[in-house]
Each structure stands twice: as C-alpha cells, then as structure tokens.
Amino acid sequence: MKDIQWYPGHMTKAKRMMQEDIKLIDIVVELVDARLPLSSKNPDIDELAKNKYRLILLNKSDLADPSVTKRWEEFYKSKGYYVVCLDSRKNSGMKIITDMINEACKEKVERDRKRGIINRPIRAMVAGIPNVGKSTFINSYAKKACTKVGNKPGVTKGKQWIRISKNVELLDTPGILWPKFEDQEIGKRLAYIGSINDEIIDKTELAYNFIEFLKKNYCNVLSERYNINEELSCYDILSEIALVRKCLVKGNEADVNKAATLLFEDFRSGKLGRISLELP
Asked: Can you give the pTM of this predicted structure?
C-alpha cells in the first residue's frame, strides 16, 4: 500500500494562526478519538501548547473498547494531563468539562485575583485533528449550534470565539494534521476513522489491512455482522461482504470497492461494535 500523506494548504495557514492565538490562551483542550488516542493526537499541538494547562478529551468513547479506554485515561493522567472521556453527540460527559477547566486553571485564577483582576474568563483553545468531532463537541458544550458541523475532515476553517459561561470562553480552531507521518501505521489508523480524505486513499487496499487487524484483535466481529467465514483470506472476506450485502457490478460480480466503503461506514458508526485500534 502506498504511503498515506495528506496536508492541504489551509492546514499550514491554520497552524500559523494557532501559533499567533496561543498567546491569548490559558488552557488547550485537545480532542482525540478514543479509538486511537495516540495516533489521533497531533504532536505539533504539544509543541504549541508546552507552557499551557492541558485537558485531553477522549471523544467518541462510546465507539471504543471500554477496557482499553480506561487504560488510555490512566496513561494520559500519568503524563500530567487532565482527562475526560465523552461522547459529544449525546452530551454525555459535558458537565464535568467546565469543572475540569476551572480545576486546571485555578492557580492562574488565584494569581489574577491577587493582582486585582477579577472575573476575567478563562480562555480555552479547542484543538484536534480533522474529524475527531470538535464542532459537535463545541455545539453540545455551548448548548447551541454555534459552529458549522460536517463529518468531512476540514469543515471548520475560520477562527471563532464562543462564550460558554461568564467564566469560560472557547476559541475553536480548524483541524490540523502534521506534515509527515513517520509511522505509516498511524496514517492507516487515521484513514480507518476518516481523518484523512477518503478520496485520496485506495480504500480496497485499506480494507484488507483493516480486516487483517480485526481478525487478529476482534475475531468474530466480521462473522457476526456479515455472516461470513473469517477463516478466509482478507481478499476473499471483502468479496464475501460484497456478495452478502449485494455490492455488485455487472454480471453479479463482487464490487469490493463498494464493500470497502460499507465496511468503513459500519466501523465508523459503531455497527461492528466497540473497537479500539491501539493500546497504550
């Protein structure tokens, strides 16, 4: 499979914008996808936010393997981050976020108070790679549709401040990846969850890799969902999924490309069950 790289021009501009805005910020709230909390964490954000308070949100935790998510939560806490697991589409885990932001920034608020600065809101930057659910999170958190939401990576392009309460203001930022994936496994995992534009990827090839992963780590998931034999090769499994789900081309041949799209839709929407793609 050829190397996966995707870094459109607007991401360079977005990164520059974040470098300018970081001066105004007290805390960086970084969303990662709970199914791959390391691969979906942009190392550039660590560099940008090195002198700021940090909160990590393990978003889409309803789609991830709960026992693995627990381990990731402990992993990030041990590194000094504040951590919250949430499913921002269902508003679950939202109430605790303001408490966490206040807790993380309490020394700063106390310093301000001693200098006579009272009631200045905490300013939080929301960051993350494309498609981890930033816009959905902000809409749920602010309890109103204040950002444009789409499940195509890269919908949010401009800068906007959102007032959450008299204590907290959020700055939304566009999703940015980093320019080069050193490890191609990271590129693949990001492609599985849809953080890399599907149009630039050989989806069939990617599906074979994904089926290989499932056979090794979550056996029976495919046989339960599609009623097929998992002992087959990855190539044959994808063909079987195509036949079972009537993804056919002329002459009733299996359309493996369409089957690959279906497989990833089922994974991304949780229809294959709760699956984590990496361990701490």
From this structure: 0.85
Which domains does the chain carry? 9-172 (3.40.50.300), 202-268 (1.10.1580.10)
Rg, the chain, Cα only? 20
pLDDT digits (tens, 9 = 90+) for 65-115: 999 999 999 999 999 999 999 988 887 667 789 999 999 999 999 999 999
Beta bridge partners of 83: 56
C-alpha angle 242/35/88, rounded to 5°? 105
Orientation angle between helical segments 203-217 and 256-268, nearest 10 degrees: 50
Residues whose CB falls within 8 Å of the CB of residue 242, separated by 6 or more in sequence, listed in order: 248, 254, 255, 256, 258, 259
Residue for token pair 């359309």 = 255
Residues sharing a CB contact under 8 Å with residue 90, sequence separation 6 or more, in sequence order: 62
The answer to whether the Cα torsion of 180, 184, 190, 191 is positive or negative is positive
